[in-house]
Amino acid sequence: MSSEHGEPGAAGDPRSDGRSTRWETHRARRREQVVDAALVVLGRDGQDFGLDQVAHEAGVTKPVIYRHFGDRAALLDAMAARATDRLMERLMPVLYRENAARTRIHDSVDAVLGFLEDSPGVDLLFRRRLPGQRGEVVDAGREFIASALAGVLGSSAAALGIEESELVGVWSRSLVGSVQATAEWWLRGRETGTAPAREVVAEHLTVLIWAQIAGLARRRGVTLSGESPLPVDTVPK
Predict the structure, then answer these.
(1) Helix (H, G, I), strand (E, B), or coil: what is residue 133?
(2) In this structure, what are the phi and psi dihedrals at residue 100, rounded to the nearest 5 degrees?
(3) What pLDDT score does 176 carry?
(4) Contact yes or no for 4/10 (Cβ under 8 A)
(5) Which residue segments constitute the domains of the chain, with CATH numbers given?
(6) What is the number of alpha carbons within 13 Å of residue 134 lying toward its C-beta?
């Protein structure tokens, strides 16, 4: 028998924990189902994204969405968190791969562009362009990426004799901002058919970022080639 609050099992019932676990698993799966459906609708409808369409796509009623998320803002937070996780899954292994420095830069930039290309509408979440969106999740994700990049740049800078932590902090955040702004410009151009090919954008961004690294190295009397390896710090927790 269910408890008076509608949760599976009753106090003292040895079956209660098992039923509660199954119920929580069901709730988690339903939440994932709704978030996945919402991302599909976002990619299809863009700014016209609405909860009615999400409910239809997920095969649930609108009250089910409110029961799991409370309000539209909470669903948008969950969507932003899922999108950020997917971006991290693509970016982090590339960013921390042990290979030639220039290759790593190119592959990291291309991973971001590729993710946005394969995830229509997600850029709206990252730009906080949807009504009701709070933005804290996006800000936290951007800060995580900046911190991860600071780890890579910090260890690389240290190897070049550059120990200004403030420089590394500014540098990492400026790179995150410039890649994001360029990616948004590229996506808008794709909509009108005026954008360069993804490979062209990735290569130009790589040239600009590598010029910064090589320029800082030259100031310390070090000449780098694109094949120069740069040390990799540990992935931030």
Answers:
(1) coil
(2) -55, 140
(3) 92
(4) no
(5) 1-70 (1.10.10), 83-237 (1.10.357)
(6) 13
